C-alpha cells in the first residue's frame, strides 16, 4: 500500500529525551564492583601493551583519576610494570608520559579475566542505571500528533490513508500486527515510524548484571549521532562516555530468527555475551518480519512475548544461571503475509493492540511510483510503457504492489545494458522483464 518516493526528506535535529548521564568521578558513582574495572584494565593492557593513562581513559570511557587509582593498586600487586617513566609519581603532569604493561603475573591474571568473559570495551553501566534510563526514554512519554506522523511518512505513497491508525498505534506503546500481501510495504512503513519522534536516546556500551557483562551497543543496530567530544579530555565537555547518544534503534529480523537470539548469548567464535535483540531495541522498534516462517512453531514465538507485552518487563536468563528483569519499553511489530487467523490463536490476537492491514496501491500512486523509480535508475519510460504495465497486471490478476516497479525497472535496466539499447524502457523490454520476474503461473517476486 505504500512505498518511498525519491522526494528529498530532511529530518529535524534530534534532541535527547532524557537528561544526559553525568561523568562519575568515584568508584561508587560507577555503580559496579571495582574488581570489574580492574579486570578490564588488565585485559586492555593485554590487548594494547604499553598504553598510557590517556589511552586507557579513552578505551575504558571513565575518569582518568579512576584509571590512575586502579594502576596504583595493580602495581602494588606486581601485575603492572611502568615503562618510559619521566617521573616517579602519578601526578597529572607526568601521567601522560608514563606507559604501562603487564608483568608475567599480570599476563596470567589477564588470561584468567578473558576466560571469565571476553568483553573488551568501555566500563559497563549498572543494571539499575540502565533500567532507569530506559524508563526515562519511554516513547509514550512524548506523544506524537498527526503532523509528526505526516512528517515521518511524507515521502511514502499512500501513507495518508494510514496515518489515522498508525499515529495512535505509536502512542499506545502496544504491539502491532502488520499483515497483507508480500511486497505491500509493511516492514518499510514500520521502519519509518520512528521518524515521527524527534528525540534521541542514550544506549550503554555494556551493562553489568548479576556478575555478567552484557554488551548492548552494536554498530549494526545503533546509529550514533555525535562523538561526545571524544577528542577532548576535559570531562566537563561531555556526558558519561559509557553511553552513546543514538537515534532510536530500529531492529528487524525475519525467518532467520531463533529463540537463542532472544536470550543473552554469544556467537561460536566470539565469547562476548551479547544482549538479546529486544534489549538492543529498547526505546525503539523491534520488527519480526515474515512471521510464520521462523524455524520454531509460531505459538512458541508468540508465547515468548505474552509477559513482556502485558507487563512491559522481560526476564532474561544469564550465563551463570541467574535471572534478571529488564524494562520492555519498545514498539514490537509483527509483519506477515499469511492469514493472521491461521497462524495464531485468538487469545494472542486479542493481546495485540493494533492489527493493520496493508494492500496494493491505487493506480495513480502506482504510476507515480513507476516514474519516480525509473528516474532514480536513470532510465526513461516509453509513452505506452505504463499502459503495458496495466495490461500485464490485468492479465495476471496481480495487484499494484509497491515492490514490483523497483524490481521490474531493475531487470529492465539489466536488459538495456546487456542489449546496448537506448536507456528507455519499452513495452517489449517490460514484457521480457515481467516474464523473468514472475513464474509461469503468474506468481513471483513476492507480489501476490
Short description:
The protein is α/β, with parallel strands linked by helices and 448 residues long. Helix content is 37%, strand content 17%.
Give your account of this protein's structure.
- The chain has 448 residues and is an alpha/beta fold.
- It has helices at 27-30, 34-47, 53-60, 64-76, 104-116, 127-136, 146-152, 163-172, 186-192, 277-280, 298-303, 306-311, 340-343, 346-351, 363-376, 385-396, 403-419, 427-437; strands at 3-4, 15-16, 51-52, 80-83, 99-102, 125-126, 156-157, 176-180, 199-204, 206-209, 212-215, 243-246, 250-253, 285-288, 313-317, 323-327, 331-336, 354-358, 380-381, 424-425.
- The strands form 7 sheets. It has a 5-stranded parallel sheet. A 3-stranded mixed sheet has the order 2-9-12, with helices on one face.
- Strand 13, helix 10 (277-280) and strand 14 form a beta-alpha-beta unit.
- Helix 7 (146-152) crosses helix 8.
- The longest helix has 17 residues, at 403-419.
- It is elongated, with a radius of gyration of 27 Å.
Amino acid at each position: 500500500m505504500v512505498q518511498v518516493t525519491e522526494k528529498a526528506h530532511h529530518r529535524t535535529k534530534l534532541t535527547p529525551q532524557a537528561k544526559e548521564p553525568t561523568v562519575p568521578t568515584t568508584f561508587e558513582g560507577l555503580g559496579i564492583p571495582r574488581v570489574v574495572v580492574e579486570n578490564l584494565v588488565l585485559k586492555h593492557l593485554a590487548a594494547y601493551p604499553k598504553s598510557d593513562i590517556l589511552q586507557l581513559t579513552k578505551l575504558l570511557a571513565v575518569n582518568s583519576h579512576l584509571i590512575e587509582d586502579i594502576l596504583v593498586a595493580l602495581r602494588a600487586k606486581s601485575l603492572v610494570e611502568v615503562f618510559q617513566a619521566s617521573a616517579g609519581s602519578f601526578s597529572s603532569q607526568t601521567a601522560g608520559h608514563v606507559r604501562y604493561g603487564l608483568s608475567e603475573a599480570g599476563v596470567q591474571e589477564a588470561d584468567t579475566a578473558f576466560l571469565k568473559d571476553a568483553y573488551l570495551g568501555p566500563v559497563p553501566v549498572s543494571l539499575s542505571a540502565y533500567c532507569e534510563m530506559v524508563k526515562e526514554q519511554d516513547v509514550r512519554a512524548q506523544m506524537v500528533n498527526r503532523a509528526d506522523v505526516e512528517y515521518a511518512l511524507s515521502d511514502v505513497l499512500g501513507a495518508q490513508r494510514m496515518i489515522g491508525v498508525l499515529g495512535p498505534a505509536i502512542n499506545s506503546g502496544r504491539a502491532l500486527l502488520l499483515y497483507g500481501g508480500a511486497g505491500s510495504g509493511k516492514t518499510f512503513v514500520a521502519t519509518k515510524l520512528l521518524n515521527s519522534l524527534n528525540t534521541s536516546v542514550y544506549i550503554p556500551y555494556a551493562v553489568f548484571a548479576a556478575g555478567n557483562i552484557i554488551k548492548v551497543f552494536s554498530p549494526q543496530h545503533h546509529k550514533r549521532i555525535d562523538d561526545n567530544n571524544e577528542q577532548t579530555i576535559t570531562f566537563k565537555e561531555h556526558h558519561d562516555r559509557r553511553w552513546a547518544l543514538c537515534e532510536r534503534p530500529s531492529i528487524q529480523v525475519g525467518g532467520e530468527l531463533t529463540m537463542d537470539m532472544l536470550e543473552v548469548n554469544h556467537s561460536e567464535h566470539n565469547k562476548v555475551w551479547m544482549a538479546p535483540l529486544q534489549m538492543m531495541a529498547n526505546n525503539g522498534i523491534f520488527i519480526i518480519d515474515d512471521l510464520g516462517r521462523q524455524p520454531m512453531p509460531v505459538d512458541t514465538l508468540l508465547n515468548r512475548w505474552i509477559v513482556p507485552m502485558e507487563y512491559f518487563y522481560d526476564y532474561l536468563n544469564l550465563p551463570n544461571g541467574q535471572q534478571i528483569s529488564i524494562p520492555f519499553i519498545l514498539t514490537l511489530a509483527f509483519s506477515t503475509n499469511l492469514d493472521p487467523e491461521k497462524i495464531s490463536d485468538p487469545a494472542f490476537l486479542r493481546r495485540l493492540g493494533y492489527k493493520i492491514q496493508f494492500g496494493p496501491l491505487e493506480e495513480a500512486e502506482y504510476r507515480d511510483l513507476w516514474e519516480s523509480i525509473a528516474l532514480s535508475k536513470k532510465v526513461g519510460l516509453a509513452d505506452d510503457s505504463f499502459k503495458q504495465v496495466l495490461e500485464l497486471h490485468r492479465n495476471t490478476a496481480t495487484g499494484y504492489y509497491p515492490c514490483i516497479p523497483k524490481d521490474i525497472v531493475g531487470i529492465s535496466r539489466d536488459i538495456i545494458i546487456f542489449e546496448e539499447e537506448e536507456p528507455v524502457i519499452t513495452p517489449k523490454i517490460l514484457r521480457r522483464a515481467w516474464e523473468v520476474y514472475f513464474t509461469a503461473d503468474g506468481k513471483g517476486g513476492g507480489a501476490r
